[in-house]
Each structure stands twice: as structure tokens, then as C-alpha cells.
Amino acid sequence: MTFEKLSDKQKQVFRWPYTDDYKAIICDGAVRSGKTVCMVTSFILWAMKVFDHACFGVCGKTVASAERNLIQPVQTIADLTAYFKVTYSLKTHMLTVKAAERENYFFVFGGKDESSYQLVQGITLSGVLLDEVALMPKSFVNQVLARTLSVEKAKYWFNCNPEGPSHWFYKEWVSQPEKKNALHIHFLMSDNPTLTENMIRQAEAQFEGVFYQRYILGLWVVAEGLIYTMYEEALAEPPEGKADEYALSIDYGTHNPFALLLWGRYGKVWYLVSEYYYSGRDEGKLKTDSDYGEELDRFVDDQLSRYATEDEPYEPPRLDVFIDPSAASFIALLLRKDRYHVIPADNSVLEGIRNTQTAMRRGLIKLSKRCKATIQELQGYSWDSKSQEDKPIKINDHAMDSMRYFVQTKRLARVRRDHSPMFFM
Ligand SMILES: Nc1ncnc2c1ncn2[C@@H]1O[C@H](COP(=O)(O)OP(=O)(O)OP(=O)(O)O)[C@@H](O)[C@H]1O
Ligand SMILES: [Mg+2]
Description:
Blueprint: H1 8-15, E1 24-29, H2 35-50, E2 55-60, H3 63-74, H4 78-81, E3 85-89, E4 94-98, E5 103-110, H5 114-121, E6 127-131, H6 138-146, E7 155-160, H7 168-174, E8 182-187, H8 197-204, H9 209-215, E9 245-251, E10 258-266, E11 269-278, H10 280-283, H11 289-305, E12 319-323, H12 328-337, E13 340-344, H13 349-361, E14 365-367, H14 372-380, H15 398-409
Parallel strand pairs: 1-7, 1-8, 2-5, 2-6, 6-7, 9-12, 11-14, 12-13
Antiparallel strand pairs: 3-4, 4-5, 9-10, 10-11
Helix pairs in contact: 1-2, 2-3, 13-15
The protein binds adenosine-5'-triphosphate (ATP) and magnesium ion.
């Protein structure tokens, strides 16, 4: 790639290191707004202009993500490769950049990789670039910055997407750049000159609520209020007749509610067709695993046998069951039954919520009004705004977890946040 055009904010990223005005730069804001590519290019140009035989730190959330987001693009950016010989060693995680009379070394570290902590300890760095810094622990970032203290001209380069306002990086850097002698530039997608209006609209449609505010508007905002603000748009009854396929999702509970959801796919859309919801605590009677196992079979047979005809008598289908991965004993029981294909669910809460929001917004899932317990939970399911991190309030969240397991584990609405050639998918 080449930088044929640069936006004004990108130009600033290329200019700032050659004045003595700032020690650091912080580029935060929207996804795909052109922060990373121009920062890493400017970083290498500056290093090559100002230093020789010096070492630098290039950090990502993990070594692998730094290689994907920083090292791979660098090797294809003509504005660098036309002037420098760039070689990367996968073994030592070191990028060597050579010009006629000088060369510099860029070591890749991962904020979440244990081994990076040890490697960072012994080395002197003349500059550091931290890509997606809000995903790194503060201890790692401080350790990396400390490695530059003996180099007077060293500079810090940070970029990230926003998180909540109580995040350490926001409190210490973003909210008080003057105190840190940092230049703060806030990016929006309109600051990436390669995005068309259509691409921006497509990206905007991927996010909802707090994630829209953060990843599209680039704001450091608290997650608060209702999580599925758009659920009413997703209410719809499934078409008449049998679905193309069925699947189940389960959030398991004995005292807490047991939330079983039956999903039916009609064409491209997965409908929540029916639910079974039982709260041992509210009903004053706990059910055992084998009770639940029997009720599960009965529920499925009830729901699906209605489509039997004389020509096609009912036979219990073998169904995928996406289940709470911690429900070990019930999973063992389901495995013995041999009529279910058990899939322990991906329990990534935030990513799961984000993808479920997107699935609703894009019409990939629809919810039948007959599922009263699910709808009741949707009406109250909220972010815990008092919490330091993003998390939902953990009450009346059983059908919500069950729904999230289904969407997240089936990868219905995944948004790629890495730098794959595909824009969004
Ligand atoms: N001036 C430019 N010229 C050519 N391509 C560009 C330019 N600016 C950005 N791009 C391209 O746009 C895409 C997004 O840019 P980049 O990865 O730098 O965004 P980002 O702000 O770091 O996004 P994220 O927050 O998702 O990490 C990349 O494919 C990049 O190569
Ligand atoms: Mg980036």
C-alpha cells in the first residue's frame, strides 16, 4: 500500500515528532479510522531519521496481534520499503530496518504475553509504540516506558479505541494530556481518506449502544442503561411450518433459573421459537439433572412432533445444544443421552453481548413474543454503571446468557476487529 492521500489528522501524526513540543502522542477514537497504519509508518520514519543502531519497542495486545496489525502492514507500505530494507525475524520477533548508512531494530512485545515482561526488563529503548494500548495491563505499559528513561530523545506513541472512563489509560493519559506533555488526537472514520461513505455506513451498522458510542463516535463512555435497546425491532413470529433446522441453547441452574431456548432457522434467520424456563427458587422445588433431562426431551418432542405427517412420522432429530460451559454434570448427562450434539458455549461476555446486539440489529435473529420469560429479561437487562469494568447487572440474566451462548458460539454476527483484508464480516 501507499499513502496517496493523508487526512489532516494523519498529517499531524507524521509531523509531530520533529518538534520538541511533545514527549508523547495519543491517537484514540473510532475503529478503522487510520490510526495504526499512519502511526507505525511515522514511527519508523522518525526512528530512522533521528537514531542509528538503536532499539525500539513495538507492542500489541499480544505478539501475534502486533505482528498482524503492525509488522505485516509495515512490510507492504511502499513509503517505507522504497527507502529501507525491512526484514522481520519470526524467531526473535525483531524487525530490522536498514538504510544506506544506518539501521535500527524494532522488538515486538505483547502486553498480555507473560514472556514479554521478562524480555522487556533488560533492554534500553529509544522509542515505543503501543498499539491498542487500552487492552494492555498498566504494569506492562509502565515497564515498557521505564526502558526509555536513559534516552533523552525517546518518544511514546499510543493508540487505542475507547473503553469506559474509569479505565487507567483514560484517567492517566487521555484525560490529561498536558500533564504528560502528550499530543492527543481524536480520530473518526472520516479521518481515514480511504473509506467511502458506504463503507462508513456499513461499519456504523455493526455496533449498538455503548459500543456505537465507543467504536464509531470514539467516546470514552460508561456502559449504562438497557443493554438490548433494540430488542423490540427483533420481535417477530416465525413463519408457519417447520424450520430448516433447529438448535437449543441452555443456561443451567438449579436454585437459579434453568433457561432453555429453542431456535429454528428459516432461510437465513434464526427465530427464537419457544422457551422452557424454570426457577427452582421461585417455584419452591428444586429439580435434579435427570428431571431436567427428561423435561428437555419432552419439550423438544412437544415442540417438534407437531410437524409430523403420515408420510413423515415424528422422529426426534439430533440437535445441537449450546450450553453453559460450567454445567459439567448436566453436560455429562446430555452426552450419555446420545440424542444431542453438545457444544460447550463460548462464554466471552462482552464480545457475546456485542455480537448479540449486532445480530438483532441486522435481523439475523428474531424473537417470538411467546417467549415471555426471555422478553421479560430483555426489558430489564442492564449495564452495571457502578462497576469499574463493563459488565451487566447479574440478575434476571438467564435467558440472556442462553441467547448469548447461541449467538456467540455459532458466530452469527462476528465483527472482525483485527486487520484482515476483509473490512467487516
Ligand atoms: N491514508 C491512507 N492511505 C491508504 N490506506 C489507509 C490510509 N489510512 C488508513 N488506511 C487503511 O485503512 C484501514 C484502517 O486503518 P487502520 O488499521 O490504521 O485503522 P485503526 O484506526 O488503527 O483501526 P482500529 O481502531 O480498528 O485498529 C487499513 O486497511 C489501512 O491500510
Ligand atoms: Mg488500529
